[in-house]
Amino acid sequence: MKKVVLNFLVIAALTVSAALTSCEEEVKVKAPELTTTEVTEFTENTAKSGGNITDDGGAEVTTRGVCWGTSANPTISGNKTSDGTGKGSFTSTLSGLEPSTEYFVRAYATNSAGTSYGNEVSFTTFAEPEKVKLVETITYENYGNSAKYEYDNQSRISKISWYGGTHLERSTTLTYNSNDLVKVAHWDGYDNSTRTEEYVKNGNKITMTRKYENPVDNDICTINLNSDGTIAKFEINGSDYFTTYQYKDGNLTKYSDYKAGEFEYKYDNKKSPFFNCKTPKWYMFFYFDCDDVFAGVNNMIERSWSGEWADEYTYVYDEDGFPTKLTEKSTRYDGEMVIKFKYK
Length: 344
Hints:
Blueprint: H1 2-26, E1 33-36, E2 47-55, E3 63-69, E4 79-80, E5 88-94, E6 102-111, E7 114-124, E8 135-140, E9 145-151, E10 157-164, E11 167-177, E12 180-188, E13 193-202, E14 205-212, E15 219-225, E16 231-236, E17 242-248, E18 251-257, E19 261-267, H2 281-288, E20 300-305, E21 309-317, E22 323-330, E23 336-343
Antiparallel strand pairs: 1-2, 2-5, 3-4, 3-6, 6-7, 8-9, 8-23, 9-10, 10-11, 11-12, 12-13, 13-14, 14-15, 15-16, 16-17, 17-18, 18-19, 19-20, 20-21, 21-22, 22-23
């Protein structure tokens, strides 16, 4: 009987020992397993990557993200992100990068057994974009007036504000749809009035609808374009009013108004204030019309009208060849007109 009891105790002890050993094997933890996501949406300073944790190693993943550097096999001792916990995929944003630089990236995950890394991927950031010089303010020294120009991220004029001293007198706001200018809204502080121009382009023809506060004043106009996008002819539908435009080397050389006569222009070989402006060419010439000197590729040095009078323009240029000062002399009046340009 004693022998039976002894055998039973031995068997019981072995069973418990085996069970404990089995439990120890079941709770053994290892480092996570994961992969690194290819880098996308990178610019000169930022990028997106991430990872996918396929196995948490038997314990909760407490930290995950990506690490990066300019040398292979980056670790969490350097640049890294922290993007949540647990298994599964995650997205990471890398920031503070240098332009034109190759970076190496690895996803990482940490649990109680340690930190493990995914496969390494690499990419090169974009070069820093060349700064585009755009005219910001045009000041008419003789009158104390100025015009301020604002631009969208495609270097197109988005708003023009005119000031008398420091007082806002009027403004014009331009709206685009993809590559096309579709609407221009004007506000006049003199009488607090508004008007809009809506443009619908069809091939080389643009239909412009001008809308005023009093609908009776509304009209429809047609703008015909040349193949290079410059304006060829403007006419008010239902009337005999029209203007025509002629060009050479990106500059307006002749402007004809059926009432006012013909204006002719000559240019220098320097960059105009709006040389880098990407506002549609037709609008630049239509907006500045015959009364200003800024719409072409180069700077106007002479403007004459039907042999009756002539204006002459001289410039001071900066180191990039852009005008900073314009002086106008005219046979129509004594004295000089001075205009200054400030760039952003």
